[in-house]
Design brief:
It contains 7 helices and 9 strands. It is α/β, with parallel strands linked by helices. It has one domain: Vaccinia Virus protein VP39 (Rossmann fold), CATH 3.40.50.150. The protein starts with a helix and ends with a strand.
């Protein structure tokens, strides 16, 4: 499995995983975008959605940094799934280091591909995270994952979604032109060799709006070199809430 092998190697390069290069360690600091989302929830809804009764699902959790942040900061319960067994091992190690004795059993990390059914009951989760994860899925798989998220989310539950953006991103357009995959809107990753999907805002709205209320959409800045070429990929973030 190309993607699993690639990410296992990336995590293994870190000296946190027994490797010898600390500069290649994937970050253990939570994403700023996620912290902004939590501030949005607290500012608009108080503790309604982030409290000790909340269960959070992190799909493609990697080394667990974002789920660990939520569980530490808000004392929620968490379920983290990722294709990389090395990443999951790192997540378990990190949680064991930072969790209090009372918190240690409140998070479960498991090796699980995104294409597999989510092993949680219906209407059991209040917040789901898809942060730079589901873009590796084909269209039918993305639809199945969306439907699985809808199944496990409680009424009024939230999906925090972040992925690559095509709009005004010359690098993404070049990848689509030079490395096209069989499916529209997908390119073949030049290092991993697997297809990846890149969103437009219109495509995101068409995909999610029939099923979720879109509270907010944010796009990252257009990072360019002096000659106008892109030096950093653009991303799109959406705050999505399941209807009753």
């Amino acid at each position: 499995m190309k993607a699993k092998d690639y990410w296992n190697k990336e995590y293994a390069k870190s000296n946190r995983s027994g490797g010898n290069n600390p500069h290649l360690a994937l970050s253990t600091i939570h994403a700023e975008d996620l912290e902004k989302f939590t501030r949005y929830l607290e500012r608009n809804f108080g503790k309604k959605y982030l409290n000790v009764t909340t269960k959070v699902l992190d799909m493609g959790c990697g080394n667990g940094r974002n789920l660990i942040y939520l569980c530490s900061a808000f004392n929620v319960r968490g379920f983290g799934y990722d294709i990389s067994d090395v990443g999951i091992r790192e997540a378990k190690k990190e949680w064991a280091l930072v969790a209090t004795d009372a918190q240690k059993t409140s998070v479960e990390f498991q090796v699980l591909p995104l294409s597999e059914p989510i092993p949680l009951p219906d209407a059991s989760v209040m917040v789901a995270l898809d942060m730079m994860a589901s873009h590796v899925l084909l269209k039918e798989e993305r639809i199945r994952l969306r439907d699985e998220v809808l199944r496990v989310l409680k009424p009024e539950g939230w999906l925090f979604f972040k992925s690559f953006l095509l709009d005004d991103d010359s690098h993404a357009k070049r990848l689509l032109r030079e490395k096209p995959a069989e499916e529209d809107g997908m390119y073949v990753h030049p290092e991993i060799g697997t297809p990846e999907y890149v969103w437009t805002e219109d495509a995101l709205r068409d995909f999610f709006e029939p099923h979720f209320k879109i509270h907010k959409i944010e796009k990252s800045f257009k990072h360019k070199h002096a000659d106008g070429s892109a030096w950093k990929r653009r991303t799109i973030v959406a705050y999505l809430q399941k209807e009753n």
